[in-house]
Specification:
The protein is 80% helix and 0% strand. By secondary structure, it is mainly α. Bound molecules: ligand L54SNA5H. Ligand L54SNA5H binds next to helix 1, helix 9, helix 10, helix 18 and helix 19. This is Lysosomal dipeptide transporter MFSD1.
């Protein structure tokens, strides 16, 4: 008797199992990205970091992705050599970067350990620990961004047509879980800077466990490829040409979504790097208290992004959701900058924006580009986004130093947060332009994602 064997991605249990595995890789990625925001003040007291030093450290994540176009190159590599090899390579970079960062902040290194002399011998404006941490942040960013592109492609491979927006929403939720854990655990381990180095090592160890999780995923991926190869061959053999990038940039809807992406995230991620310190300074809280308060943000989005994702799968309205999210973001920053509204209220508003826009924006890509170019499309979008993630933490640190001379313990963040409000306003303009373009060209951005 002939039995038809179902491919692995036909099984719902397998799909959600895979999401759990790659979701963990994202959680540790975001953990390490956000672990430093509650340590800003500890790094000021232990290493003497100024606002600009801290901003530079946060920005260095984006250097490879913006200036070396690594997120685009990672996306191209992904479309060319496939999920397993690309994923392994970039999760490995992420791990190396996390360990280098922790090494730079370690007591061993700072007591004259291996490489200390070399790192002291050039660019005396920057301390040796900052230089090694910057190098670590560089490699971490190089690996982390392409890893997110890889995970997006994994989800398209396993979930397309089957709750894709929900899966993307859950993927984002896994990232937020990592941020939540970082905001809670990092200041707790650091204990006002007495265990600063242990807090960073803890993050690096988590990232290395993420590498092990990816190795396990590779086994499932190989099995699925053996099952679907004859049907899906096109998606792995299509070769990259520079035309792909030109075509993407000529697609106005793609351009608007990429510009919304850079402005929206520039008003959130760089803000998050400063949020615990800002809340602590403006409302007189300890770093653990302000970390706890800020952690409501990823916690809320963790719950609401999948819910909004599921709604968009079924009801559509992605462009309208992005507009609404952008307006909410603008209101949030104005409240933070200009009022003493209890911080939980703007944090809740920020959570709505931070859940709604990503839930609508990322899966919309399948409406705008072909699946076999999706790695390149996401990669390019990340490189554009990383330009903002490079510029704005630096700018925020520089504005902070300029408006608070002498690196004081308590800083006035008004000018810094108003800068984030201005960036949010730009995001709103691009969200509106996207909606008009969709109306004109009929991409179907407002339609549900689920196939009937
Ligand atoms: N399918 C894409 C989901 C991306 C989610 C998005 N993350 C980013 O935009 C990253 N490029 C930057 C992440 C920085 C932390 N590692 C998000 O909403 O988190």
């Amino acid at each position: 008797m002939n039995t038809i064997k179902k491919a692995l991605n036909e099984s719902a249990a397998m799909r959600w199992g895979v999401l759990l595995l790659v979701g963990f890789v994202l959680s540790v990625n975001y953990y390490f990205y956000d672990a430093f925001s509650t340590l800003k003040d500890d790094m000021r007291t232990v290493f003497g970091f100024t606002g600009t030093d801290y901003g530079l450290f946060a920005s260095f994540y984006s250097v490879p992705n913006t200036f070396l176009l690594m997120a685009v190159i990672g996306g191209i590599i992904l479309d060319k050599i496939g999920i397993r090899r690309t994923g392994f390579l970039f999760v490995l970079f992420m791990t190396i970067g996390a360990f280098l960062t922790a090494y730079g902040a370690s007591d061993y290194f700072n007591n004259g350990g291996f490489g200390y002399e070399l790192m002291s011998s050039f660019l005396p404006r920057f301390s040796p620990e900052l230089k090694v941490m910057l190098l670590g942040r560089f490699f971490f960013g190089l690996g982390a961004e392409t890893t997110i592109v890889v995970v997006s492609k994994i989800l398209v491979k396993w979930f397309n047509g089957k709750d894709l927006a929900l899966a993307f929403g859950l993927k984002v939720a896994f990232g937020r879980l990592g941020s939540f854990a970082a905001l809670r655990i990092s200041p707790f381990i650091s204990n006002e800077g007495t265990n600063l180095s242990s807090a960073i090592w803890f993050g690096a160890i988590l990232v290395s466990i993420g590498l092990l999780a990816f190795l396990v995923y590779m086994l499932f991926d190989a099995k699925l490829d053996r099952q679907i190869q004859p049907v899906n061959n096109a998606s792995t053999t299509d070769s990259f040409s520079i035309r792909d990038i030109i075509d993407l940039l000529k697609n106005r809807a793609y351009l608007y979504i990429a510009l919304l992406c850079v402005t929206f995230y520039s008003a959130i991620f760089p803000f998050n790097h400063y949020a615990p310190d800002f809340i602590s300074d403006k409302f007189g809280l300890s770093s653990i208290e302000s970390g706890n308060l800020t952690s409501f943000l990823p916690m809320g989005t963790l719950i609401f992004t999948p819910i909004f994702g599921a709604l968009i799968d079924r009801k559509g309205k992605s462009a309208s959701a992005m507009i609404f999210g952008a307006i909410t973001l603008l209101i949030t920053h104005l409240l933070f900058a200009l009022t003493y509204t209890p911080p939980l209220i703007p944090i809740i508003l920020l959570g709505i924006a931070y859940a709604l826009v990503p839930a609508a924006m990322w899966p919309t890509m399948v409406k705008l580009v072909d699946e076999n170019k999706i790695g390149t499309a996401y990669g390019l979008m990340y490189s554009i986004q990383n330009l903002g993630l490079f510029v704005f933490p630096l700018l925020a640190g520089a504005i902070l130093d300029a408006t608070n001379p002498g690196n004081p313990e308590i800083s006035d963040y008004t000018a810094t947060i108003l800068m984030f409000a201005a960036v949010s306003l730009l995001g709103l303009i691009f969200a509106l332009l996207l909606k008009f373009e969709d109306k004109k060209k009929g991409f179907g951005v407002e339609l549900p994602l689920n196939k009937k």
